[in-house]
Amino acid sequence: MKKTPYIFLSSFLILFAIFFILPLFVAIYTALYASRGPNMYYQFVGPRNFLKGITDIKLWEAFINMWIFTLIWIPILLVTGLALSIYVYNRNNFWSRLLLVVAFLPYAVPTVIGSILWGFMYNPTSGGLTYVFSLFNLKINLLKPESIMIALVNIIAWEYLGFNTVILLSGLRSIPTYIYEAAIIDGATLSSIIKNIQIPLIKKYLYFIVATTIIGAQLLFNEPYILGRIAPIQPNFTPNTYIYYVIKSTGNLNYAASLSLVIGVVSIISSFVLFRRIMRGD
Amino acid sequence: MHSSRKFIIRIVEAVAVLIVMVYFLMPLWWLIISSFKPIPEIYRGNPFLPPLMPSFEIFETLFLKTEGGLWLFNSVSYSAVTAFIASLSSLAAGYSFSKFSFKGRSFLYGLVAFSLTLPVIIVAVPTFILVKNLGGLDTAIGFIVPLSFSSFGVFLMKIFIDSNVSNDLLDAARIDGASEIRIFFSIVLRLCLSSLLTLFVIHFIQTWNNLIYGLLILYTKEKFILPQGMDINLYFGSRELAHSLSILIGGASSSVLLMILLFLSVEKKIEESFQAGYGMKG
């Protein structure tokens, strides 16, 4: 039966062709035109939209904003993720396992809901976090423009730390036991086992979470969008919120199409460069 | 001396574990208790104390006086349909890539792998343009169909089938005269049930979270997904505060409850299918 594999492929392939491959061409085609009224393909303008997109200061501000976000979040992620996973692995009792379940729980919460929940927590008059701060006589309002980045990092940490800990934990579990046995025979202490065996041997997993975090940060939309509804955030906080803002405020879909291509290409290149950098740092 | 030092370390450890757990549980605990408070009580006093008089006011308002119940139903049904189509079509395509050799196989699989490296936004905007030009704006179909495939799912299923479905078993079934369709549904589907369900849950949550696509495609309030409905209620003052709060808090706690139930039900199914899988092998 020569047709069999194509029949099994067909349902996926049709959807994939229409809603993944075709849109790539639609984006390029649309970006080459300018609209007039309802006619999106009124006039051929060549690369004008692309040039405008590449030199759009607001887009670059959004990218820089995201890179700042990544620079703050990744060190925190690595330190806390390593600490949690090593603790859970080495302690391995009821409480440490419960800790892991509790830390993973937010991953099951939809990100829009998570952002709204933290929005309530941050509320400067009645929020839960504001209440906790007030117990320590602190008056901190994370919804101010200068601290909004911290507010965002915290939401992302709450959502994804447990998930990343689980990945690191599976790395720790992949270390063969004879290595530990040899180390213990040689008289290694727990701290030297952590420093000289566990951390070096899960480097691959650390690279993995750094790479996925960079790629994920470039796609942030839900969290900054929801935060933007309750706090003063510029519409170009991330590239994705900027593109949505362009569509909603100007309705210029030709320009939006070129922006989506520029954003896509830049984020592929930047994650590739960063990934290479990290690999070379090995 | 030594034992008292050990005791202090134990205390520090317990406190640290407790703080981490409190951090992850705080917003969820607040959500659950707040959803059973009468509305005026939410903004009063210690936000983390359980309600003095448990009340169902929020859920009553959510389901009886606002569109919240409808939005919840929309989100559940849209997500379920996309997840159902995406997981079944991924299984079929993954099976085809894994167990058949055919013309164009490596090219098509390369295309699927390539699509995994592209950020979603490249496709989201032109898909919106495409759906707009096809006249699918503001329809459930226009939202559901473009989200009903998963390149990641095809990848996952191929890898799973590569190592969990043996060629001998398939050949034996063919010799016994089973049709290809029957082999697919009664052998492949059954052996892959666990990862199929995992994919279903992942895709369900992905659709649930796809706020940007909802914002672009759906305009009429009756067709909104829940995150959109929550979004328009983040502007307090645009309507009655009690209604907005009920939609935000009641909608959030219903969604969280639903996601947790989904995870738990799937977890049981995964265990069952693992046992069934071992039974087949043994």
Quick structural gist:
The complex is a heterodimer of chains A (282) and B (282). By secondary structure, chain A is mainly α.
Give structural notes.
The complex is a heterodimer of chains A (282) and B (282). With 282 residues, chain A is mainly alpha-helical. In chain A, 75% of the residues lie in helices and 4% in strands. Chain A has 13 helices and 2 strands; from the N terminus they run αββαααααααααααα. Chain A has helices spanning 4-31, 48-54, 57-91, 94-104, 111-122, 128-135, 148-173, 177-185, 190-201, 203-217, 222-230, 239-250, 253-280; strands at 33-36, 39-44. Chain A has a two-stranded antiparallel ribbon with strand order 1-2. The radius of gyration of chain A is 24 Å and the shape is globular. The N and C termini of chain A lie far apart (49 Å). By secondary structure, chain B is an all-alpha fold. Chain B folds into 2 domains: 2-57, no CATH class; 67-232, MetI-like fold. In chain B, 77% of the residues lie in helices and 0% in strands. Chain B has helices at residues 2-34, 39-42, 57-65, 68-99, 105-117, 120-133, 140-144, 151-164, 167-175, 180-191, 193-208, 211-217, 226-232, 241-281. In chain B, α4 crosses α11 (193-208) and α6 packs parallel to α12. Chain B is globular, with a radius of gyration of 24 Å. Chain B starts with a helix and ends with a helix. Classes of the chains: A mainly alpha (282), B mainly alpha (282). At the A-B interface, α1, α4, α5, α6 and α11 of A face α1, α4, α5, α6 and α12 of B.
Main features:
heterodimer; A: 282 residues; mainly alpha; MetI-like fold; two-stranded antiparallel ribbon; 13 helices; 2 strands; 75% helix; 4% strand; B: 282 residues; 2 domains; 14 helices; disordered C terminus
